[in-house]
Amino acid sequence: MGKVNALILAGGKGKRMNKSISKQFLTIQEKPVLYYTLDKFDSCSRVDEIYLVLPEDEIEYFKEYILGKYRFNKPIHIVKGGKERQHSVYNGLIAMDNCDVVLIHDGARPFINEELINEGIESTFLYGAAAPGVKLKDTIKIVDNNGFSKTTLNRDELVAIQTPQCFKYSIILEGHNYIRENKITVTDDTMVVELLDYNVYIYDGSYNNIKITTPEDLKIAETII
């Protein structure tokens, strides 16, 4: 079907954690968050290679405490991160060779599973771009600058987008070249291809596929695992 690469972004400093160590290196049952994430993609037969984007000052730490400690079967290529997330994605994309589909995933989402990975790959070959999402449990309101409610959004039309966000390589590279040339800031990669009028297929995600961001998330992670 073509070559599939995983692009794992592990640049989060975890300021909301109030920890001296980056959140992807915090441990759940004595193993780093990033280990669990890498292990899921390493175990998936549909993924050929893994590209891991890290801040330059954390590369040696990763090599010593994860790469040197745990065994992985697939090649893990380490890429130096950029100033912002989108710069890190671009660095990862241009480091790849001979890729058909790329799965862009948060390093701090350790509970991704093989089913979500495979569905993302299959949907991407069909539609060109895909991402998992879950229905919102809460009512969402738009508020004004004074804190008063202006309107209530239709919850049935809203989803919270997760990762991996999956793309045909040529499409996502075209998108990142476009935002670089036009100095556009984005918050995720589905926005990148939407700017070029590509449609993104949203498939069912998992409420367990959480991103470790706050101390409370680590407690939830202990329960999930």
Automatic annotation (TrEMBL):
Annotated site residue numbers, Positions MEP for the nucleophilic attack: R155, K211
Q: What is its EC number?
A: 2.7.7.60
Q: Which SUPFAM superfamilies match?
A: Nucleotide-diphospho-sugar transferases
Q: Which InterPro entries match?
A: IspD (IPR001228), IspD/TarI (IPR034683), IspD/TarI_cytidylyltransf_bact (IPR050088), ISPD_synthase_CS (IPR018294), Nucleotide-diphossugar_trans (IPR029044)
**Reactions catalysed, as given in the entry:** 2-C-methyl-D-erythritol 4-phosphate + CTP + H(+) = 4-CDP-2-C-methyl-D-erythritol + diphosphate
Specify whether Cell inner membrane is a keyword of the entry. no
Q: In which pathway does it act?
A: Isoprenoid biosynthesis; isopentenyl diphosphate biosynthesis via DXP pathway; isopentenyl diphosphate from 1-deoxy-D-xylulose 5-phosphate: step 2/6
Give a GO molecular function annotation for the protein.
Answer: 2-C-methyl-D-erythritol 4-phosphate cytidylyltransferase activity
Write the record's keywords in alphabetical order, separated by commas. Answer: Isoprene biosynthesis, Nucleotidyltransferase, Transferase
Transferase: present as a keyword of the record? Answer: yes
**Which chain positions carry the site (Transition state stabilizer)?**
R16, K23
Show the NCBIfam families listed in the entry. Answer: ispD
Q: Which family is this protein grouped under?
A: Belongs to the IspD/TarI cytidylyltransferase family. IspD subfamily.
| The protein's role, per its UniProt record | Catalyzes the formation of 4-diphosphocytidyl-2-C-methyl-D-erythritol from CTP and 2-C-methyl-D-erythritol 4-phosphate (MEP).
Question: Could you tell me what this protein is called?
Answer: 2-C-methyl-D-erythritol 4-phosphate cytidylyltransferase
Q: Which organism is it from?
A: Clostridium simiarum
Its encoding gene is what?
A: ispD
